[in-house]
Amino acid sequence: MTPETQTRLAALRERMVATETGLVAVAPGSHMQWLLGFTPASDERPCLLLVSPGGTAFLMPALNADDVRQHTDIDFFRWSDEVGPHVALCQALGAIGANAPDRVAIDETMRADFALLVLDALPSDVLRTFTADTLGGLRMRKNEREYDLLKMNATIADRAIEAAVAALKPGMTENELAAIIRNHFLKEGAAPSFWIVGSGPNGAFPHHTASDRHITEGDAVVIDIGGIKSAFPSDITRVAVVGQPPQGFAEIHAIVERAVQAALAAAKPGALARDVDAAARTVITEAGYGKFFTHRTGHGMGIDGHEPPYITATSETVLEEGMVFSIEPGIYLPGRFGCRLEEIVILRKDGPEILSGLPRSILTAKG
């Protein structure tokens, strides 16, 4: 067990004691990756990390045990296809003193059949929760190693945007531009994870991907992209224009930029996430475009591209130093164009540090 895993398990147990949680059950995925530094192969065979205030155990399919043993010395309770997992699960829960907890936190990304397996092994009156106030709460604050990896990925994404704008020209399709973006990520050793290339009226669809639409002179092009390197992601949105921007676009871009600046100013340790959303939304609403800002202002980012804290109109999350999240207001005018500007920030004691080094000004294609 690495020193970082030991530290994180100790922090999780402190949270469990504070929240009177007797068991946290974690499936293969990002929670396990964060805790242990790896995640086993996942299929329909239940594989679970079980943590109590006094112990840790793995419910482990015998098929995968020897491979996973290379990564951890946590006790395994193996089960085979011939016997099934129930007996091994009960043995594991008993070994860590968690067969009758008052409160259990289930990994919210867990398969439903895994979750029911755990709950069926516990008393029927156990209080059932998810991990928001235990494991999820810990993940929101990033350490310097995580910051370095997020910063590295942000820099790669900056260069992918620059490569896209350098290649952008009338007549090419959105899919062709998306291919350039993907190839740039691959060239830098990152796996492209998503690409939104929304030109002209397609830019008014916030989650458009890319199509065979030909980009034309006078289009505004929303470019929202991300990749993954060393298990951490990037996410950035900028807008480029081909030739002269469409009528009214410069005004919309300026409003969205003011909304970004307002949200950045509101993002301080101790502020509520909803106050950051309100700061951006107020700018856009007062400019007369409130009904065209159709999504939240931001989302957290870490091992997952979308994770807490969520910067929404209803979120009561208190922002803390070390949290990483996006600020990405937008205005989407159906049939015309869209405009979204996105920054990923880490919250420092005096406010947000932007991970990208790319300006938010309107980018102009040179093709």
From TrEMBL:
Coiled-coil residue spans: none
Q: Which Gene3D superfamilies match?
A: Creatinase/methionine aminopeptidase superfamily, Creatinase/prolidase N-terminal domain
Q: Name one Pfam family in it.
A: Creatinase_N
Residue ranges occupied by any Creatinase N-terminal domain in the UniProt entry: 8-125
Q: Which InterPro entries match?
A: Creatin/AminoP/Spt16_N, Creatinase/aminopeptidase-like, Creatinase_N, Pept_M24, Peptidase_M24B
User: What are the residue boundaries of the Peptidase M24 domain, all occurrences included?
Assistant: 152-347
Protein name as annotated: Peptidase M24
